[in-house]
Amino acid sequence: MSITFHNNIVHIKNSAISYVMEVVDRKYLVNRYFGKSIRKYRLSGIPHYFKRGYNTEHDCSIENVSFDDFPFEYPVRGFGDYRIPALTVKQENGIEFIRPIFKSWKILSEKPQLDGLPSTFAGNSKVETLEILCEDKQAGLQIFLYYSIFDEKGIITRHQKIVNIGTQTLKLQNVQSVSLELPAQDYDFLSLFGTHAKEANINRFPIHHGIQKIESVRGSSSPQHQPFFALMSPQTTENNGEVYGFHLVYSGNFMAQVEKDQFGSIRAQIGLNKDEFCWTLSDGQSFTTPEAILNYSCNGLNGMSQNFHWLYQHHLMPEKFANKTRPILLNSWESMYYDVSLEKIDKQSTIAKQLGIELFVLDDGWFRKGNDSYSSMGDWICNENKLPGGIENVAKLIHNKGMQFGLWFEPEAISEDSNLYRTHPEWTLQVPGYELTKGRHEYLLDLSREDVQKFLIETLDSYLKDGLIDYIKWDMNRPLTDVNSLEIDCVRKGEVSHRYILGLYNVLDTITKKYPKVLIEGCSSGGARFDPGMLYYVPQNWTSDNTDAFDRVQIQFGYSLLYPPIAMGAHVSITPNHQTGRTTSLNTRYQVARLFNLGYELDLTKCTEKEQSEIAQQIAQHKIARDWLLTANLYRNQSPNENYAIWSVVSDDKSQFEVIIFQKFHNPLFSHDKFKLCGLNSDFDYMNVDDKSVFGGDELMQVGLTVPLIREDFHAFSLKFVKI
Ligand code: GLA
Asked: Using CB atoms within 10 A of its CB, is residue 53 exposed (0-12), middle (13-18) or buried (19+)?
């Protein structure tokens, strides 16, 4: 890894990637290259400029240069570049105009952490950072651009710090976390779209001239669009081809856009959503953008995923949990819903313990007045009619059985029917004079307020301080509306949604620092706020409220583009499934969940003896496998057709692997279909542990295996191989 300067060029590189910028005329910072590592950059690939009509002229040593297609590294609008800007600032005179020029650059020998925001960290790796300063003296504005590179993998992290060094008050109207120029060629755009209970669907289409955009204005990153997109060549597959991935370490409103200009060149950006944002920067103040991850792979989508998985497991999620197997849990939601009772908990947890389950999670219902979602949110007082002796008693009951105890909270929500709302109606997000909007019968607390943050910290603290709780499910079940804080003055109204997220991060930061051993699972009606920002505080996320195994294959497949299996919770639930009515075998449900953080979410008292013993076997098998799964790499194998989804996990030293093939429908037409393995060592020979057949790694990756044809709709088939 190195950051080197040569004349006006800076070259950031490691063995996987190079990122090159040039300062033209000591003024203009431009991007020259991002991609596979090169030894040295000597100004190849510069566009041919010639005199064009209907254009602008510039004080630049490059003859006939047009700013209309100049590859500005951090572009602004107003003097000849008409494409999407990365930064828009309104000066006190009301004019939206700045013209920053390059000032200096320097190397920092560490990975900077961002003020009040989650960000990746160096951990066991070495990281170097380039800091570039650009300045607009007239406006009194400094822009610090940050580029961090790790000693391995195709990752560059980016963020900006904007500082007001003048005397006027500035308004930041748009400040993106990264802007990247890519050369004119054909690209496909790929993103993950969805909705509640059907998250992370793959959306891939060819980029056309003009702007293509995805976003969230819902206050959370949302199930509608993951704050991620990838650009790749149209030929890119799971294992071959170039991919550029962009992901934002942030949990609120975002936008991600790509502009293909008249010449086919690309400008790609990701950052805060400018439509919901306006930040007042008084003299002396600074603003830090969320961190963006740039990911380059020349080994297809799997290569991109391997980079993200490595980064998120070892350089983003809480270090304490990165290499720690997670407890197998039983969650009460789908077996009890709101109607929880000590008797049910006792019976179910007794069986759970016998089957080998390690953690009992009491989900929603424990604090509610009734058995619905209309009341009590915000009070967080256990309903002792349901649970005599309160949470303390439940925790003791579970602990006495030798299991861990987990509890559900939705800290950000407040019911109209709650003492908290009656005492502090001013604590909700609200617009004076207008009726509040409910979502799932609840309002949202105004987390931009310090008193609300303090209240949440104290509430959680009161439950955690006695060590009775080993796990928290941190839920958040509605998007933001009425986005206004009674406390924030008129000038700063455009800051509320970002301040909400900063407030949330402050609460999470305080709680996770004080209770580092408590495992927190993020949830937002499933995957509505599953993003790298949350992952910094909570090492796993409930991926979807849809527990149907068939749908879960698609959902986990989609999320696997970005997140390692250890970041996802996956449960075996009852059949027919509560969301889809689909019936699936117990084995298939287990196969879908077993590579992830395994849990069960069904009424164990209703399982037959045969089912209970099958569950006990699954758990015993998982306990043996989970240690090596923790350090194994997950690959998506290129499926021969849409009837299959195929995953494999390969140990880090490539000495063993497992592959799971999901067949959607029984179809005799597919009896000749093959799939190729990936991520193996070509020189190793591997033996199938069941039938003892032996194949070379090269043979498995080049020739492949024939998909087994099973006479059953939706069936999972798994194979295990070890090196001989
Ligand atoms: C959300 C979660 C579920 C469950 C319910 C409880 O929908 O995603 O898993 O916890 O809330 O109300």
From this structure: exposed
